Structure formats: structure tokens, C-alpha cells
Amino acid sequence: MTGAVPAARSLVLALDTGSERCSVALLHAGTGRIVARADPVIGRGHAERLMPLVEQVLGEAGVGWEAVGRVGVGIGPGSFTGIRVALAAAHGLSLSLECPLVGVSSLEALAEPHGTGETPVLAVQDAKRGEVYAALFAPGGAILEGPAALAPAALVDFVDPVSPSRLLLVGSGASIAAGVLGGHDVRIVSEDGAPDIAAVARLAAAATPGGEVRALYLRGADARPSSAPSLVASVETSP
After folding, report:
1. b (16+ CB within 10 A) / e for 194-227
2. How far apart are CA 192 and CA 171, in angstroms?
3. What gap in Å lies between CA 223 and CA 236, rounded to an integer?
4. Which pTM value belongs to this model?
5. What is the largest CA-CA distance in the chain?
6. Cα(51)–Cα(69) distance, rounded to whole angstroms?
7. For the CA atoms of 227, 23, 78, 201, what is the dihedral angle to 10 degrees?
8. Over the stretch 66-98, which tens digit does the pLDDT of each residue have?
């Protein structure tokens, strides 16, 4: 069962800052159409760019904050510092706008555009330090295994118990996975490590809100707490 977005507030605002992109999109919950989006590659500086991008996307869509009925946010795994930027903004916006907040895994968002066929999708991100982040999805999007941080060689045991030999591979670690899954019929369909913000928005629209929304960290973090000012001041002070 999905949680419906109120008709009077029909837009889902999706945010993701877990990669080199700073991504924002507005999706109409009734039609599933992306109304406006922006996802520039910025590398760093997500805290400074995110809220201006949100304002830009709202302006391009010709709507105000009152049209937003749900906020969806990418929760990782991904850049430790980047994830926290969107998450803090999303929590603040959810409170300010009095609307539900939904978290979306980056691995699920990477797999979502490729889950309409009959082949399972293995989403794999290069986590550096000799590890990958991985999650295995059935056709249609149901999760079969993970998410987990593991050594590339462990991917064989990760997929074998729950998956047939044929797999689609997505994510920045797709080629790494292909190199160790020699006994499987694998096909790399995307090596982009940044989830499509449209997929984040679609998953957020379809999800049932509820529970705590927090970052999906699969191993210890190595960044200090941010000293950035409030990311939602523009909402709290707007007329």
C-alpha cells in the first residue's frame, strides 16, 4: 500500500546530494511526470547550492512551496558529507511545510530505471578502500539482498543464493562486479554512480511514509560535522 500525496499539494520534491551532482526535482504525484529538475555536477559545495537550486526548480515549475505535498531525499550510501546536506534540508522542509518525508536508497534509485524487465538488477557502487556497496533487486524492484558493504570477491556469495545466473549491473562499481562474476551472464547497463533524480522522485512518490529517515551508512564515516548555516531559512522566512 502506498501513501497518497494530497491532491491539493500534488508535488513531490526530491533532493539528492550524495554524489558530485546537486540534484533537485519536482514530480507530479498524480501523473508521475517530472515537472522541473536541476542536477548540475558541482563536485563540492552542496550546502551552498542546494536551496538556491530548489528555489530555481520551483520557479521553473511556476509553483510555490504550498504545492509540495511530500519531500523525498537520497539517503545513500554515498558521500558522507553530501548525504547529510540533503538530509538536513529535507528534514527542515518536511517540518516547515508540514508534509511527509521519505528516504530513498541510492542503490534502489540506481536500479529503478532498469527494473521493468525480467532480469534481476545488481546495483554496485565503488566504495573505495577495496570495498563496494551492493544491493540486489528482483524485476519490479523488490529487494533480494543487501544493501551491504563488502569486498568485490564476496559478490559471488552475495548473489548466488537468491539470483539466477543472469544479471544487469548498474553503478560506479558495475565493471568491478563484472570482473568477479565470471560465472554469471552479466550485462553492464550503466556505470553512472549518481542516481537519476527522477528515479528518486518516483520512488519517493510510491513509498509509504513512516519511520525515521536517516542516512544509510554501511561503514564508518570520516568527515566532521558540518558547520553550515540552516538550509531552510528561506522557507521559514518566506511570506
Report:
1. bbbbbbbbbbbbbbebeeebebbebeeeeeeeee
2. 5
3. 28
4. 0.88
5. 61
6. 18
7. 120
8. 999 999 999 999 888 899 999 999 999 999 999
Q: Which three cell numbers stand for residue 42?
A: 558541482
Name residue 35's amino acid: V
Is the predicted pLDDT of residue 199 greater than 90, yes or no? yes
Q: Which residue has the higher pLDDT, 237 or 186?
A: 186
* CB contact at 8 A, 27 and 12: yes
- Closest alpha carbon to 220 in 91, 103, 80: 80
Report the alpha-carbon distance of residue 146 to residue 163 in Å, rounded.
13
How many angstroms separate the CA atoms of 87 and 17, rounded?
9
Q: From CA 133, how far away is CA 111, in angstroms rounded? A: 13
Residue 33: what residue type? Answer: R
- Tens digits of per-residue pLDDT, 163-181? 667 899 999 999 999 999 9
CA distances from 162 to 55, 119, 128, 138, 228 (A): 44, 13, 26, 9, 43
Which backbone phi and psi does 176 adopt, to 5 degrees? Answer: -60, -45
